[in-house]
C-alpha cells in the first residue's frame, strides 16, 4: 500500500497524451509534490493544457498512467477523484441568471448523494469559500454582472468549496487586465500558504509565473524542456530554445524573482538611441 505522506499528490508515468491518436506529449514522467505551486509554461501548442487535462482525468492517456496519491487515477470512482482534485477549465461560463452563491454551491456536488442531500454544513462551506475569495458583498449578484477579476474569483471559490486538496487551474488569468491578474494570483498563493492547497496552473506570462510559483515546468517538443525553481528554469538559453525569445533575465525589483525583459528589435533600438541623443542635446542646451 502506498504511503500517502511520501507519495507525490500527482504523478505522470510514461505518459503519452494527445488528440485523435496524434500525441502532443510522449513518454513523459513528472511528479507534483504536495503543498506546492507548480506552473506549466511553454509556447502555444506545446501541451500545457493537454497535460493539465490528463492530470484532471479530462483527457484519457494514449499510453502510460497518471497516479493520484500513489494510485492510478483511472481506478478511482469519479466522486472520489472530485473530492481530492478540482479543475478550473479555460474561460468557464456560468448559466444565465446564476448568482455567485449558486455557482459556489455547485462545488459541494462531490459531497452529495441521494442519501445525503444539501445540508447547513454545505452552505457554511460555500459561504466560507466566498469569504476567502473576497466576494461576500456580491454573493447574491449574477455572476455575469461581475468584473473579470471577480468572475475568476467566483470560479476559484467554487473549487475552494469543493474542498479538494489539489487545484488544477487552466489559464486562470486569461482575458484579465494586469490588476485583475495580480488579484487572482495573489489569491491562489494565499490558498496555498494558508490552506495548504497544492496548485498546478497553466500561465502565459513568464514573469508572473516566476513571481507566484515554487516550481516551473517548461514543455517543448513533446516533453519537459526544463523543470525547477524559477531561478533555475528561466535563463536566456531556455527562453531562446523553448520560446524563440531573445530576452534578458533580471531580478524583479520587488520580489527578486526572475523577470523577463525582451531584447529590443532594430526599430526599438533606434528609437532608444535617438531618445538618448535628444536627452544629451537637451542637457547641453541647459
TrEMBL record:
GO biological-process terms attached to the record: iron ion transport
One of the Pfam families matching this protein, by short name: ABC_tran
Record's subcellular location: Cell membrane
GO MF term set: ATP binding; ATP hydrolysis activity
Keywords carried by this UniProt record: ATP-binding, Cell membrane, Ion transport, Iron, Iron transport, Membrane, Nucleotide-binding, Transport
Annotated ABC transporter domain residues: 10-246
First and last residue of the signal peptide: none
Protein name: ABC transporter ATP-binding protein
